[in-house]
Amino acid sequence: MPADPSPRTAPSPPSPSSPPSPQNRGSGTSAVEVRRSSRRRRTVSAYREGDRTIVLIPARMSEAEEQRWVGVMLDKLAAQESKRMLGDTELVARAEWLSEQYLGGRARPASVRWVTNQNTRWGSCTPAEGSIRLSHRLKGMPEYVVDYVLVHELAHLLVPGHGRRFWELLEAYPRTERARGYLEGVVAAGRLPHLPGAGTGTEPD
């Protein structure tokens, strides 16, 4: 592993040695503020402060490294937060909210639940029943990734298959490409087996 700062989340008080550099990045609507410190040598940490995310990095870090580590820490915080949320009841409420937000409320799932028998799919749905199932392997992933899979399956309640009209619906969700990239990274890391005829394995069905 390269000798990069080791990520760890810590709600520690900041001790910047240079002015903070706010960025218009974030998880959801949260802004990100990067604070550099000459006292930090290797560690990177992050915490929530109201509607902002504070990322603390070593002063010597390059701009490219800063951008990379901000992304890493946002995903790490989101993954930690998603572990504390969304039981089956919350999944239904979340799906209904996402439908209203991105699909005009047209997708109305009858049930949404976690399942443990989907090892080659992130999600699936049965339009005739209005049921959506999410793989338990999504638990602990960033919230925007779970939301993407939910929106993906909600869109299938309206449009079967993965044609142009389906992807036009998905364009309404602003973090589609980032979520797909995250899932592709999981596959690349070898955490999801590739099956013959299953494509990349990164898309819900």
Describe this protein with a few key phrases:
single chain, 205 residues, alpha/beta, Zincin-like, 2 domains, 4-stranded mixed β-sheet, 3-stranded mixed β-sheet, elongated, disordered N terminus
Structure description:
The structure is a single chain. The protein contains five helices and seven strands. The protein is an alpha/beta fold. The protein has two domains: 62 residues, no CATH class; 101 residues, Metalloproteases ("zincins"), catalytic domain (Zincin-like). Strands 1-2-4-3 form a four-stranded mixed β-sheet, covered by helices on one side. Strands 5-7-6 form a three-stranded mixed β-sheet. Strand 1 and strand 2 form a beta hairpin. It is elongated and about 60 Å long. The N terminus is likely disordered.
Shape descriptor: elongated
Overall average pLDDT: 77
CATH superfamily of the largest domain: Metalloproteases ("zincins"), catalytic domain
| Reported CATH architecture of the largest domain | 2-Layer Sandwich
- Cα-to-Cα separation, first versus last residue: 35 Å
Largest sheet: 4 strands, mixed
Strand content: 15-25%
Low-confidence stretches: 1-29, 192-202
How many DSSP-defined strands?
A: 7
Pfam families: YgjP-like
GO molecular function, one term: hydrolase activity
InterPro entries: UTP_pyrophosphatase-like, YgjP-like_metallopeptidase
Organism: Streptomyces himastatinicus ATCC 53653
